[in-house]
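Protein: Transporter
Species: Agromyces bauzanensis
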Amino acid sequence: MTTETIIMSTETKAPKTAPPRAGSLRRSNRVLAFFTIPSLLWYLIFTIGPLIAMFLISFTDWTSIIATPEFIGFENFAEMFNDPRVGTAIVNTAIQLVATVPIQVVGGFMLGYFLSLKFRGHRFFRVVLFIPALISVAQLGTIFTVVFGPAGLINSLLTAVGLEEWTRAWLANESTAMLCIILVGIWSGLGFNSILFAARLSAIDGDVYAAAELDGANHWQRMWRIAFPISIDFFGVVLMLQFLWTLFGSAALILVMTAGGPGQATSTLSWLVYRFAFTGAPSIGYSQAIGVLLFILGSIGLLIIRRAFRQRY
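Structure follows.
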C-alpha cells in the first residue's frame, strides 16, 4: 500500500467537524442573554434605581417620608456649600480616612504575610484575628462605649497604674472622641484584612521564599520585595474596599458611640446623610444633596486608587 493510499484512507475515516453555523450561535447567545435578565433587572431596580432617586431627591425640599416633595433646583447644594457643619464633616472624614485606611491595609498585609508562613499556632491566630468580623456594628459600638466610658476599662487601667490624672470621658471629649472612633475602626478591620491577605499570600510557592532566603533576604525584604509585588493587584482591591467601607459605612459606628458629638467632633459626611434624613427636623432632600457629594468623593477616590495600581490592577 502506497503512502498516498494510506493518507486517502485516513482522510475518509476521520470525520470532519463542521463549524457552528451563525444561526445556532445567535440562538445560543439569546438563551444566555435570557438567563441574565433576572440579575440585570435586580441591578437596575436595586442599584441604578436608588442612585437615580438620590440625585432626583437632592433637588427637592422634602421634610419627611409622608410629605410631598417640592422641586427647588440647586438650593440644597447652595446651602450645603455654605454650611459650616458640612465643612467640619469633610475635615473629619478626611482625618478618618487618612488615619484608618493605611493602617488597616498595610498592617493587614504585614499580618497576613506572617500568617501565610504557617508558623506554629497560626490557625489559632487566624481565628483570633477574625473574631472582630463576627461582631455586628451595634455590638461593636456598645462594647467600646463601655470600654471608653468614665468607669470603663481604659480609665480603670489608668487608675490601677497610678495615672488617674489621665482619666477622662473619652467619648465626651472633643479632643479624643474622633481618636476613639478611629481606633475602633482599625481594631475591627485590621484582623479581617490580614485574613484576606493571608489567603492570597498562601498561594505563593514556598520555593520563592526559600530561594530569597538563600540569597540572604530577611523577612522584611521578602515581605516587600517578593510578597508585595506578587500580590499588588489584590492589595489594590483591599485598599478600594476598605476606602469605601470607611467613607460610607462609618455612620453606623458613630451613631452608636457618639451620635456625631460632642458638638461636631465626630460628625462625618456619611453621618450627616443619616442625621439630616432621620433626626431633628428631617430634610431628606438636603441629606441626599450631601449624599451626592459623598458619592462624587467616593468615585474620585476609586479612580485615584485604580490609577495608582494601573500597571497591575
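Remarks: Residues 1-12 have pLDDT under 50 and may be disordered.
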